[in-house]
């Protein structure tokens, strides 16, 4: 396969490229990335000199650059996005631009280039919020009900991808997955923020009462799922991908991290809640399990410990990030006093 991976310098995209080069060494990969604050070519050091890997510094909103990049491509795997909910609340325009307009540019160009597969990476957040006392889970049939500028922009992109399939026959697949965690995740998201703050001896900010629930998916399990969808998934279909069978609220996840790092609960700091904070996400991943044989390789504790080990062993990677522009964002998001309640 000749793949174009958009957003390949970000967290999931770079894990996906590293995974792909390892498991499909005969394939070629073009990484097309704008290198926003979230893009980091450091993540790809170990493969950057391979003859079948090329990096293109480009914006998915730039039609000419996208058309040029697609010249010999048969498969597009679309990760590029603005991905952080809190940033979408502070300023939504880049989310509309990249996630909606950028996806549209990519769809048009992919259709014209005649790609054999357009795989769109989306999120469970498009389905809205479940009740914490409910046992219901999101499935491929759950109606869309996005509630943040981020999830609304991702929902729009999903609708566009489906429209290009139904109207023009673009051969697409979509995956809607839950919260990812693992190596190379930017320390603005809960798990890497909690791990790195704890290592630094800082408090971990927990929004609201900490009872919000997320479904946690280890990034390598996610990459394996996308691989299966590309190899065996049905054109036009959507697959939900989740990482757990059981609900874990944010407090439980943070307490696990603190305990694995030998810290006590005094490191938890309850801060002002996120506006419109979705209460619970939970994924029923029966379809991808039954149809494609996918399941997570390990449980959350095992993957969480592996993730913590990675952050302990790669401090230069995240300390460098946390010493830059990140500090301005952190102050704006958490306030001078840490946004305490
Ligand atoms: P990320 O923020 O770590 O990386 C995004 C990457 O996209 C960066 O490398 C950035 O430079 C690039 N990018 C941004 N705008 C671009 C543009 N206009 N043109 C080209 N490149 C651009 O994101 P992530 O966490 O790796 O998420 C990847 C995808 O997976 C996103 O589509 C996101 O919505 C989806 N997703 C993420 C999660 C999660 O938990 N992280 C869960 C579900 C779905
Ligand atoms: O400091 C924090 N304190 C806190 O309590 C942060 C950053 C988050 N939280 C809470 C909010 C959520 O309930 O933790 C939970 C997880 O938050 P994030 O890591 O910001 O992820 P979330 O908002 O759930 O969205 C993530 O999963 C779905 C990704 O950022 C999205 O890109 C993806 O689509």
From TrEMBL:
SUPFAM superfamilies: NAD(P)-binding Rossmann-fold domains (SSF51735). GO terms for molecular function: dTDP-glucose 4,6-dehydratase activity. Its EC number is 4.2.1.46. One of its GO terms (biological process) is nucleotide-sugar metabolic process. Its cofactor is NAD(+). InterPro entries: dTDP_Gluc_deHydtase (IPR005888), NAD(P)-bd_dom (IPR016040), NAD(P)-bd_dom_sf (IPR036291). Keywords: Lyase, NAD. Residues 4-303 form the NAD(P)-binding domain. Coiled coil: none annotated. It holds the Pfam family GDP_Man_Dehyd. It catalyses: dTDP-alpha-D-glucose = dTDP-4-dehydro-6-deoxy-alpha-D-glucose + H2O. PANTHER family: DTDP-D-GLUCOSE 4,6-DEHYDRATASE-RELATED. Belongs to the NAD(P)-dependent epimerase/dehydratase family. dTDP-glucose dehydratase subfamily. This is dTDP-glucose 4,6-dehydratase.
């Amino acid at each position: 396969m000749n793949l174009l991976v958009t957003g390949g310098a970000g967290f999931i995209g770079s894990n996906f490229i590293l995974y792909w080069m390892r498991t499909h060494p005969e394939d070629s990969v073009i990484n097309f990335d704008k290198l926003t604050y979230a893009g980091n070519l450091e993540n790809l050091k170990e493969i950057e000199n391979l003859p079948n890997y090329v990096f293109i510094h480009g914006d998915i909103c730039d039609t000419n650059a996208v058309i040029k990049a697609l010249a010999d491509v048969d498969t597009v795997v679309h990760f590029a996005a603005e991905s952080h909910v809190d940033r979408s609340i502070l300023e939504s325009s880049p989310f509309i631009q990249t996630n909606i307009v950028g996806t549209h540019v990519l769809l048009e160009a992919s259709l014209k280039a005649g790609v054999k597969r357009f795989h769109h990476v989306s999120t469970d957040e498009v389905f809205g919020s479940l009740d914490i006392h409910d046992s219901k889970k999101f499935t491929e049939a759950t109606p869309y009900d996005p509630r943040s500028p981020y999830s609304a922009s991702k929902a729009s992109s999903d609708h566009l991808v489906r429209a290009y399939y139904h109207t023009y026959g673009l051969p697409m697949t979509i995956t809607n997955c839950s919260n990812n965690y693992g190596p190379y995740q930017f320390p603005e998201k809960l798990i890497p923020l909690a791990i790195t703050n704890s290592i630094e001896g800082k408090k971990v900010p927990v929004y609201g009462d900490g009872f919000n629930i997320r479904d946690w998916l280890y990034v390598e399990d996610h990459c394996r799922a996308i691989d299966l969808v590309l190899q065996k998934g049905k054109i036009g279909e959507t697959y939900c991908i989740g990482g757990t069978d059981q609900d874990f609220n944010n407090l439980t996840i943070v307490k696990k991290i603190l305990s694995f790092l030998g810290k006590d609960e005094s490191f938890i700091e309850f801060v002002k809640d996120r506006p419109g904070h979705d209460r619970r996400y939970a994924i029923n991943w029966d379809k991808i399990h039954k149809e494609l044989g996918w399941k997570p390789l390990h449980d959350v504790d095992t993957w969480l410990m592996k993730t913590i080990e990675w952050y302990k062993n790669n401090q230069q990677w995240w300390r460098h990030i946390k010493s830059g522009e990140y500090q301005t964002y952190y102050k704006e998001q958490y306030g001078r006093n840490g946004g305490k309640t």
